[in-house]
Amino acid sequence: MTQDAAGRAPRFTRGLAVALLVIGLVVVLLLLVAAPLFVTANPAFFTRYRALNRRYASLQTSVHRGLACNECHGDSRGPAVYTAGLMADFYASLFSKQREPAFVKFEKPSREACVKCHRGAWSFILARTTKVPHPAHLRVSTEKRDCVTCHKWTAHEEAYMQKHKTMPFSGVCVTFGCHVGYKPADQCELCHHTIKPDKAAWTRAHPEAVRSIGANACLEKCHDAWQCTLCHTTGKTPVFTGLKAQSGTAAIEVLHAKPDWLLKQHGPQALADKSKCQICHISEGECQDCHALRPAFHGSTRTWLARHKEPGKNQARCLACHTSSWCKKCHDQFKEK
After folding, report:
1. Cβ burial, residue 40 (10 Å; 0-12/13-18/19+)
2. Which of 13, 132, 177, 192 lies most in the core, judged by the most C-beta atoms within 10 Å?
C-alpha cells in the first residue's frame, strides 16, 4: 500500500502542477484582455493622444461626460473589431506615442446611437416647444436622417459655439439645418458675398439668396432693414457702414476663396493681425486642430533638424505653433560653456 501510494505520488504531483499552470495561464490571459478593456472604457484613456486631448476636455463640460466613447461613436466594422482595436491601441500606447489611435476608428454618431437614449426626450409643453420644436423632433427621430446633421457639437462643444446660441431662430437655422453656424462650402457666398468681385452680379443675384436663407439671416449679422427699404423703394444704393465686411476683413474674405488659401495665404494674414480672424473664428479651437498636424513643409523628421535654420529665420511663423522656451531648450545644448 505504501509502495503503491509512493508510486502514484509523482503522477499526482505532475497533474497538480499542470492544472496550476493551466489556471495561471488562463488568469494571465484574462488579465491581458481585461486590463486594456477596463482602462479603455474610460474616455480619459484617449488623453494620451494629442489629437484627442481637446475632445476629452470639451466632453467634461457636457451632459454626456462619463459615457464610454463607443456609446456614441460606434464602429461600423462591428463590436468585435472595435474591441480588438481598443486592446491593440492600449498595448501600442505602452511602447510609442501616437497623435491618434492607430486601430480604433471614431465614426460620427448614428441616429440609432442618439435615439436609444433620447427617444423619450420630447415635450409638448408650449413654453418649451416655442424654443425647440420637440414634436418636430419626434417626427425627425423616425426618419433616416442622423441627429448630428443638426446637433454637430452636442458632446464636444467649443466655446465659440456658445455665441451662435444667442442668435434668434431664423432662416439660417431653417435653411442649413443647424444652430452652430456650420454651412457647406458651396453656400458660403450666400452670406459672404463680398468674395464676389462683380458687385453688379450680386445686385441681380441677391433676391434669390434672400429667399434661400431668409431675410433674418441678413439682418442678424450685417444689414439694417432701412437699407433694404431704401434700395427697394427709391433705387438708391445705401451706404453700408459698420459692417464686419468693412472692418478690414473684406480683402481677407476674398482670399478665403483662393485655392491656396489654407496652404499659403492664411498664415501670413493670421500673423499680421489675428484679431481680424477672431471676428468670425471666435475660438482658436479650429486652428489648434489643424496645427496639431505636422506641417508638410517640415519634410522628413530625419532631415528637418538640418534644414530648419532657414525657415526658422521667420520666428513669428515658428512661434505660431512652438514656444520660444521649446526652441531655447534645444539650442542651449549646443552653446559653448
Report:
1. buried
2. 192
Burial of residue 25 (number of CB atoms within 10 Å: 0-12, 13-18, 19+): exposed
Report domain extents, the chain: 27-107
Q: Calculate the CA dihedral of residues 261, 266, 269, 274 and round it to 10 degrees.
A: 140
C-alpha cell at 105: 476608428
Query: Where do the DSSP E strands lie in 130-170?
Result: none
From the centroid of its chain, how far is CA 123?
A: 30
Quickly list H helices, 41-151. Answer: 53-59, 79-95, 111-118, 126-129, 134-140
pLDDT digits (tens, 9 = 90+) for 19-78: 777 777 777 777 777 888 888 888 889 888 887 888 888 888 888 888 888 889 888 888
Residue 43, all three cell numbers: 474616455
DSSP classification of residue 49: S
Q: Are 320 and 291 in contact (CB under 8 A)?
A: yes
CA angle 308, 309, 314 (to 5 degrees): 95
